[in-house]
Design a protein that fits this description.
The chain has 123 residues and is an alpha+beta fold. Helix content is 48%, strand content 32%.
């Protein structure tokens, strides 16, 4: 980021000397957009979900920067899994928990099949 910012500033100053000062303004705006998008990416990359299947239970842990924010357990026999447009959801005891938003549609479908296969082996 420092190298990119330095290059944009150096090139912008050269254009100011030539008389094309708007180039510097556009370069600064472009650099600020790059910094903002990088900040959003690094914050998003810290968020994770862990799905644990054991015995007759499924746990969904939502993790933010190595700290568990939410830890929910669901009985596999009494829950139903639904593949929505942008995520998977588990319905248990009248409540809905959404997870796997970051997966592509193919990977969400594959995860749903894995969970359902595990659930059918328990029966």
């Amino acid at each position: 980021m420092t190298i990119t910012g330095g290059l944009i500033f150096f090139i912008g100053i050269r254009f100011v000397i030539v008389g094309a000062w708007p180039i510097l303004i556009f370069g600064i705006v472009e650099f600020l957009i790059l910094v903002f998008c990088s900040y959003l990416y690094f914050n998003f990359a810290k968020k994770k979900e862990r799905i644990i299947l054991d015995q007759e239970e499924m746990k969904i842990q939502k993790i933010n920067d190595q700290e568990i924010e939410d830890d929910q357990s669901y009985n596999l026999h009494w829950s139903s899994l639904k593949n929505n447009k942008d995520d998977l959801s588990i319905h248990y005891a009248g409540k809905k928990n959404v997870f796997a938003r970051f997966l592509s549609p193919q990977r969400r479908l594959k995860l749903k099949k894995i969970i359902e296969r595990y659930k059918s082996r328990l029966s």
